[in-house]
Design a protein that fits this description.
Length: 221
């Protein structure tokens, strides 16, 4: 089984217990950092790329986006999205015309792309001139340190989601090559931006203090 199929199957298992809200400390810290860099979407047409169960789709509509398109490759996840127009497709081959969106928002998904350059190129293609890309991802330094993205499914079985590591410099270079101008780069660090207690957090924060665990990037076309 290849990595794409493994990822799809992992998210299909996760979907029944994956609510459309940030449901753990890492996701809450990630969303806080995303909202600090949030683009103006009032009256705009926006793509929630790799939307999962639609947590950013909801926030985009609350921010008065005129149209929100929620795209994901996992149909069990997409079925949970009820607030927007839904499209089941790969984020590596977006089924939209050039210059379709005023903004693209993507939460914790870049590591599922098969290559960072083509991913950035697809985003840049569907963004209008002056449009904004805002995305987050599991930080490559956290992945190199051995941390993983994992969950327990509805049967309480522990599962790990496959995730590729793209160095920060490689991400920024891919964005530039796609014609995107970097505006913001932020890191969510253990014990600093991520401080919320959870079972076992005392040792986690002690052992990994200062480690970047989430990367947030905003760019403009």
């Amino acid at each position: 089984m290849n990595a794409v199929q493994e990822t799809l199957e992992a998210y299909a298992r996760w979907a029944p217990v994956y609510p459309p809200v940030p449901h753990n400390p890492l996701m809450r810290a990630e969303q806080h950092a995303m909202l600090e860099a949030w683009p103006d979407v009032d009256g705009r047409r926006v793509l929630d790329l790799a939307c999962g169960s639609g947590r950013y789709s909801r926030l985009l509509l609350e921010a008065k986006a005129a149209t929100v398109i929620s795209l994901d490759f996992c149909m069990p996840m997409l079925r949970q999205v009820s607030v927007s127009r839904r499209v089941c497709a790969s984020m590596m081959q977006l089924p939209f015309q050039q210059d379709t969106f005023d903004a693209v928002v993507s939460g914790l998904a870049l590591g599922h792309a098969t290559a960072v350059g083509p991913w950035m190129a697809q985003v840049a293609r569907v963004l209008r001139v002056g449009g904004a890309l805002l995305y987050s991802d599991f930080h490559p330094e956290a992945a190199r340190a051995g941390l993983t993205r994992s969950f327990k499914d509805e049967n309480d079985i522990h599962c790990t989601v496959p995730h590729r590591q793209y160095d920060v410099d490689a991400q920024l270079a891919a964005a530039a090559a796609a014609g995107l101008k970097i505006e913001t780069v932020r890191e969510v660090r253990v014990g600093l931006e991520l401080q919320e207690p959870f079972p076992g957090s005392e040792s986690f924060y002690r052992d990994w203090h200062g480690l970047p665990i989430v990367l947030v990037v905003r760019a403009a076309r």
